[in-house]
Design a protein that fits this description.
Blueprint lengths: L2 H51 L2 E6 L2 E3 L4 E6 L1 E6 L4 E5 L2 E6 L7 E4 L3 E4 L6 E4 L2 E7 L7 E13 L9 E15 L2 E13 L12 E9 L2 H6 L9 E11 L2 E11 L5 E10 L1 H11 L4 H12 L6 E7 L2 E4 L2 E5 L5
Antiparallel strand pairs: 1-4, 2-3, 3-6, 4-5, 5-8, 6-7, 7-10, 8-9, 9-11, 10-11, 11-12, 12-13, 13-14, 14-15, 15-16, 16-17, 17-18, 18-19, 19-20
Helix pairs in contact: 3-4
């Protein structure tokens, strides 16, 4: 055998082992993909059975796992949850979540409406949208973030045979994100072109509103894991929340807490932009206090076009600057 023959065989041998290595990797990947698909179905069925043992009905109709080999997708024709003991129920249309092979820990999900909900102390609601999707950044033991984006939102009371639905609101767009920060949870969100139906607020009229901001729920990780039955003992740090319409804008920031007796404590700063425009909106929404509103905001306008003032609440007693506002009832 000549040396040239030996040299020609070496590249072919390397190519053979490379191909074999790729085949083995693909076989391992395929086995893992199908194992995970089977595990998803098994765990979903087990969760439904466990909830059923507690008297809770849950369903992910026609659960399907697909997308092999370039993605991993989980879909259901509909979602449903019903807990008669707590008088809580929710149902929605088809659900689809997809994780691409290049971003396995960042699945994207979309849900089709309407979302129908029943909860204690609230009328049955019917929420719908043109588009709703969520992005999750998976991690352990908690996701690094959950983000929601929606377009064409609307809400109404759930129609039934004996009552006509009441339109509640519509919004052109809305977005929100939850992100753990140590033991706290940070919320950031925004909405645009929010229209509240006058029939939903006693015939009062509000213009289209935009809003957004950021707030931190203290000890939020534990609260999400085991939702409390009461607001007592909870606290929120508002970095910035604002509401605007045209040139009018109201911005609120500061800490708010509820003590064990349900009394609210807060140390807030309220900033106004164009106080006269804010007064016009409030006077239209609360016409029975139009005179007081116009008089009070006329004084604020003397402080400039963007005045700010402290709003303090101590054990339920509220004051705006040096002006007492009265007492707030304890919350549950």
């Amino acid at each position: 055998m000549t040396s040239s023959d030996e040299r020609s065989r070496k590249p072919r041998r390397r190519l053979f082992w490379l191909a074999a290595f790729i085949v083995v990797l693909f076989a391992i990947y395929s086995a893992g993909w199908f194992y995970l698909a089977d595990r998803v179905k098994t765990e979903a069925e087990r969760a439904v059975v466990e909830l059923g043992g507690k008297g809770i009905k849950a369903d992910c109709a026609n659960l399907t796992v697909s997308g092999y080999p370039l993605s991993f997708a989980v879909s259901c024709d509909s979602l449903a949850y019903q807990d008669d003991a707590q008088n809580v129920a929710a149902s929605a249309g088809d659900f689809n979540a997809v994780a691409q092979i290049t971003r396995p820990f960042s699945p994207v999900a979309d849900l089709r409406g309407p979302l129908r909900t029943v909860a204690p102390g609230m009328p049955p609601l019917w929420l719908d949208w043109d588009k709703l999707n969520a992005t999750v950044k998976l991690s352990w033991p908690l996701p690094r973030g959950v983000a929601l984006q929606a377009e064409g939102l609307s809400g109404q009371t759930d129609p039934s045979d004996d009552t006509d639905p009441v339109q509640l609101f519509s919004a052109g767009k809305a977005a929100g994100q939850l992100q753990p920060n140590g033991q706290d949870v940070v919320y950031t969100g925004s909405f645009g072109d929010l229209n509240i139906n006058p029939d939903a607020i006693g015939g009062r009229v509000l213009p289209a509103l935009d809003g957004g901001g950021e707030a931190t729920l203290k000890n939020g990780v534990a609260l999400i894991a085991a939702p409390p039955k009461s607001l007592r003992g909870q606290s929120v740090d508002i970095a910035k929340l604002d509401l605007s319409s045209g040139t009018a804008r109201v911005t609120v920031s500061g800490p708010v807490s509820v003590d064990a007796d349900g009394l609210i404590d807060a140390n807030l700063t309220i900033k106004l932009k164009d106080p006269k425009a804010v007064a016009a909106i409030l006077a239209g929404a609360i016409p029975e206090h139009k005179g007081e509103i116009e008089q009070g905001f006329a004084g604020l306008a003397m402080l400039g076009n963007e005045p700010s003032m402290p709003l303090k609440i101590v054990k339920g007693k509220a004051s705006l600057g040096f002006i007492p506002l009265g007492k707030i009832k304890p919350v549950d």
